[in-house]
Amino acid sequence: MEPTVFQKYASFLSKSFVDSNSELRWCTEAGCDKAVFNPVSEGCCLVGKCSCGNRFCWTCMQEAHPTISCEVRRECIITSILTLHKKKTMKSWITLLAQNAGMLKAGGGNQTADAKTLNWILMNTKDCPHCGVSVQKNQGAISGVRKSKSY
User: Fold this and answer.
1) How far apart, in whole angstroms, are the C-alpha atoms of residue 37 and residue 48?
2) pLDDT tens string 106-121
3) Is 68:76 a contact under the CB 8 Å cutoff?
């Protein structure tokens, strides 16, 4: 058997073993391909701890949330999304997404390009008080031209 064929077979075999084993989970961190076992009970949930440093809920596979159950967490997120949908502001959506992804960090050190972009949008745009459309701040003034109405 050729080495590449064997490597593909071994990779498939290990992936199918983890996928079919209820005692194992794949790490949820982007780019991590490690399997995690032996979750630890923390508060309301079982937490998987990967050697890469990532911690995730064993049940819902989202960020670890030891203080609340998966159901309460899901309801809080849905409520937040519905509340923001009523406001229909881009900055509100960006803030929620950034907070849920853990991208907004004080100090700006060691941020990803996505986090820097989100921070720039939050710092350099403002929602129109009349329609909620996000417009760019320009030298202290808000610039944005609308075809339907002008304010």
Assistant:
1) 7
2) 444 555 566 677 677 7
3) yes
Measure the CA angle with vertex 75, ends 72 and 79; round to 5°: 140
104, 114 contact by CB (below 8 A): no
Q: Which residues pair with 135 in a beta bridge?
A: 126
Domain ranges of the chain: 25-86, 88-142
Q: 43-93, pLDDT tens digit by residue? A: 888 999 999 999 999 998 888 888 888 888 888 777 776 666 555 566 666
What distance lies between CA 103 and its chain's CA centroid?
Answer: 8
Q: Taking CA 11 as the corner, what is the angle to CA 10 and CA 13, rounded to the nearest 5 degrees? A: 65
Residue 98 neighbours by CB distance under 10 Å: 19
Please write the tens of the pLDDT for every residue from 117-141.
767 777 777 777 666 666 776 665 5
Say which residues have a Cβ less than 8 Å from residue 70's Cβ, sequence separation at least 6.
45, 57, 59, 60, 62
